Amino acid sequence: MEFKGKGIPLHFLGDRLEFPPVEQANEEGLLAVGGDLSAERLLLAYQSGIFPWFNEDALILWWAPDPRMVLFPEKLKISKSMKKIMDSQTFRLTKNQCFGKVIDQCAALPRKDQQGTWITPNMKRAYVALHEKGFAKSYEVWQDNTLVGGLYGIDLGHIFCGESMFSTVSNASKFAFIHLVKECEQQHYQLIDCQIYTKHLESLGAQEIPRNAFMQLLEGKMDRT
């Protein structure tokens, strides 16, 4: 099924586990509406270059923007002040030790210019299910045995799809992100998918690339190594 969005046909998803080609997204990157939040559909979305993003109590919206914000691991930028923090004992990092707490914190943290959260209880359950299957992973940052930052995302084996991060102490989420990128570089990942542009991500070395280039990397049709 399709419906109109700003004069452009958009796909309405039903029960069938499928997505339209990303090339059919509108100018804003919106590709489809509806469907469900099952772990199976979420995984298919990421494997297809698509991600969910919507406000609480709204229809589920699926996106495939052009251009796509990504970070090639070797292009990571670390400021001098952040290098000092990385080399100090300010924070302690763990992985996959409290995935549920990380996603809860990401959902609870207020976002600028955003009312509510798209990380609904159903979405949390879906990501927890993906975590239990080994696809969703979390990085946790601790200070004095208190969880002060972290991030989570979907690990596709050659691309890490970042979803959300939080910080209750300055630089805590950046600490987790830098560890993630360095680990991805060591394991020869193609890129970290950052989805959409922000000045913060750009300051860390992320850049926009054409959607077709992103899809070729995702599908293994282009090798940067």
What can you tell me about this protein's structure?
This protein is an alpha+beta fold and 225 residues long. It has helices at 39-47, 80-87, 99-108, 121-132, 172-186, 199-203, 211-218, and strands spanning 2-5, 8-13, 30-34, 51-52, 61-63, 68-71, 92-95, 136-143, 146-155, 159-167, 191-195, 207-209. The protein has 7 helices and 12 strands. The strands form 2 sheets. Strands 7-8-9-10-11-6-12 form a 7-stranded mixed beta sheet, sandwiched between helices. The protein has a 5-stranded mixed beta sheet with strand order 1-2-3-5-4, with helices on one face. The longest helix is centred in the C-terminal third of the chain and has 15 residues, at 172-186.
Look up the CATH topology of the largest domain: Aminopeptidase
CATH architecture of the largest domain: 3-Layer(aba) Sandwich
Count of the separate structural domains = 2
Give the C-level CATH assignment of the largest domain: Alpha Beta
Shape: globular
Biggest sheet strand line-up: 7-8-9-10-11-6-12
Number of strands: 12
Structural class: alpha+beta
Terminal Cα span: 40 Å
Largest sheet composition: 7 strands, mixed
Helix content: 25-40%
What do we call the CATH homologous superfamily of the largest domain? Answer: Leucyl/phenylalanyl-tRNA-protein transferase, C-terminal domain
- Percent in strands: 25-35%
Low-confidence stretches: 1-5
- The number of helices is 7
